[in-house]
Write a structure and sequence with these properties.
Chain lengths: ~500, ~140
């Protein structure tokens, strides 16, 4: 067997082996260098997998040579191939930036193990995305979650600890709900392999345990995914975590929750059961839209810009949830594309916060006064990524919004389409507040200059990608389209 | 509790046997009840019971914090390395059968012993580290 066939195993195994090795490196600089190389290697693996999936469709891998459904298998199709690229790509972009950021934003006691935790969180998220086994998915969910709680707690602000504790309690509840749901399906089908589950559930789906399983998994994934009103853990966690952690999680952690939801609803339970009989669209669309409005409205009044971005994430996650709820092809494309696109723009915006915090110590409205002149590149990135957040044409945000509206119209839900557009207007308000402060207010803080190149370059790269994927849309939309076709929704 | 003679004597005598029992559970796990996780917990218990009676400071002298965290990483590294070795020998990731090309059953045996050893070392390290962290909390 050649190495190419082992790529699905390497995707998880490389960061998994790198994490303990990183823990044994006493000097932070070497640990950082090693973690960065590991993240790049992981990204290369995910690109290779992505290329292979586009070539030949589904890739299956048998762990340890034991064939599924008895053994644990990895299964990659366009949906999770795209997620693998997003997660490992964000890690590859954010990890180099961690070197200047960690010294300022991470508490000294936590700096040594910071990179180990980051690699473990990466391992867990990639594992969730790649595995074809439901219980394996839960195990990786716990790997990534436990590392995430600890990463949030590494924030230098003392409130990071309570934020991490809240995240831990709510995240554990979410994970438990998912586990109960998986347990109920196992009870009715006797299998843990997701493809096998889907086949066997066709006969067992009119039973109470399966209906309860759907409810448990939707609620559990909803908590992980921070759908309103289960978003309460997110604002504090992203505000007090180091900005680089916020950038990485803002781009990936909630997206993995969205993936779990899509995978279970469309693959395991099937569209007919989930939307036809159980009507979860009636839960996802109203809650998603409510989240979009509440998140954007609360974001407008925030003084701390990291908190503003966190509430904006609540809104964006709401769009994804609503798009899943349409249960049609364009809706699913909107959800998948927005998972990717929102990752790019939120990553860029949080990295801007990392730049500002590195130079000015904090990222509130006051420190942004006159920043347009003092940190022109950083603020330029904020403006472009912010425009994308609003959904201006030629940015990734526009593509997502377009499919969100088209999907709603396809489903015959024109009030929903109107509400999506209306809530996007709220994004103008919170982005414009910052732009106005940065460009039209006189600076009264200390003099400052641009962030170091190591932090600025990743920020700039993500911003460029926000525009690049907004112009060259066939990549994301094409992949999302073939993923939607594979998930078996009607056009 | 160090002022109680009976507790001191019993724990002093018992601690080495707890560690020995942990090794038995570890290495006999493929034939009888047991395995890496259980063995790791028992191994950590040996140190924890010693620390409760004789104090954390003396325990840390015997088993420093750095050694404990190194154990936690080494176990996981051993686990992943076995996976990579199987991959290098032409099997799937974690395919122990590939570890012995002439006798795959023997390969499976070697693989599971090494994997469980990795689990045991990590569990023992992590549990002791958790105990140290809480026991040392007030001093920092």
């Amino acid at each position: 067997m050649s190495l190419v066939q082992h790529l699905p195993a390497l995707q998880v195994a490389v960061p998994l082996l790198a994490a303990p090795l990183c823990a044994m490196m006493v000097r932070p600089r070497i640990a950082w260098l090693f973690a960065t190389l590991a993240a790049w290697a992981t990204f290369a693996v995910s690109l290779a997998i992505f290329h292979r999936v586009l070539d030949r469709g589904l890739i299956l891998y048998e762990m340890g040579g034991w064939a599924p459904p008895l053994g644990i298998g990895h299964a990659v199709d366009p949906l999770n191939a795209l997620l693998l690229v997003l997660v490992s790509g964000m890690a590859a972009i954010v990890m180099p930036a961690a070197r200047p950021g960690v010294g300022v934003e991470v508490a000294p006691r936590a700096q040594r193990l910071f990179f180990t935790l980051a690699l473990l969180a990466l391992t867990g998220m990639l594992g969730i995305a790649i595995t074809g086994d439901a219980f394996n998915l839960y195990v990786f969910l716990e790997v990534s979650s436990l590392a995430s709680y600890a990463l949030v707690a590494t924030g230098a602000d003392r409130r990071a600890t309570t934020a991490a504790f809240n995240y831990l309690v709510q995240g554990t509840i979410g994970a438990m709900f998912i586990l109960i749901g998986i347990g109920l399906i196992y009870m009715m089908t006797g299998t843990l392999n997701m493809a096998d589950m889907a086949v066997r559930l066709r006969e067992a789906r009119d039973t109470a345990p399966v209906q309860a399983a759907l409810a448990f998994i939707v609620v559990g994934a909803g908590i992980k995914f921070a759908v309103f009103p289960a978003h309460v853990w997110m604002p504090n966690a992203y505000t007090y975590a180091p900005s680089l952690v916020s950038a990485f999680f803002g781009a990936t952690a909630t997206k993995v929750g969205a993936y779990i939801l899509i995978r279970f609803i469309f693959n395991v339970f099937g569209v007919d059961f989930a939307f036809g009989e159980m009507r979860i669209g009636w839960a996802l669309i109203p809650l998603g839209l409510a989240g979009a409005f509440v998140g954007s409205l609360v974001a407008i009044w925030q003084d701390d810009l990291k908190r503003m971005l966190a509430y904006s994430s609540v809104a964006q996650v709401g769009y994804i949830a609503a798009a899943i709820g349409y249960a049609n092809r364009d809706g699913l494309i909107a959800a998948i594309v927005h998972v990717f696109n929102h990752g790019l723009m939120k990553g860029a915006l949080f990295l801007v916060m990392a730049c500002v915090i590195l130079r000015l110590g904090k990222a509130d409205m006051r420190s942004f006064r006159g920043l347009g002149r003092r940190m022109p590149v950083t603020m330029g990135c904020f403006v472009v990524a912010g425009l994308s957040m609003i959904g201006v044409p030629f940015t990734v945000g526009f593509i997502s919004k377009w499919y969100l509206v088209v999907g709603a119209l396809d489903a015959g839900l024109w009030p929903v389409a109107a509400l999506v557009v209306l809530s996007s207007l709220l994004a103008i308000v919170y982005i414009w507040r910052v732009v106005e402060t940065a460009y039209f207010r006189e600076a009264d803080g200390p003099r400052t200059r641009e962030a170091p190149a190591m932090l600025l370059a990743p920020t700039l790269l993500l911003t460029v990608l926000c525009v690049a994927f907004g112009v060259a849309t066939e990549f994301t939309v094409g992949v999302a389209g073939s993923a939607a076709d594979m998930l078996g929704v009607l056009p | 509790m160090s002022d109680n003679v009976i507790v001191r004597v019993v724990v002093k005598m018992l601690a080495p046997f707890i560690l020995l029992f942990a090794l038995y559970v570890q290495l006999h796990g493929d034939y009888g009840p047991g395995g890496g996780f259980q063995a790791g917990v028992i191994f950590a218990t040996g140190f924890i019971v010693y620390a409760i009676v004789f104090g954390v400071r003396r325990t840390i002298q015997a088993l420093p914090f750095a050694a404990v965290t190194a154990m936690a990483s080494l176990g996981l590294a051993l686990y992943a390395t076995v996976g990579f070795v199987a991959l290098g020998l032409g099997g799937a990731f974690l395919d122990y059968g590939a570890l012995d090309s002439r006798d795959p059953v023997h390969g499976q045996h070697v693989g599971i012993v090494l994997i469980e050893l990795g689990v045991g070392v990590t569990v023992a390290g992590v549990l002791t580290a958790v105990f140290y962290t809480f026991a040392e909390r007030r001093r920092r």
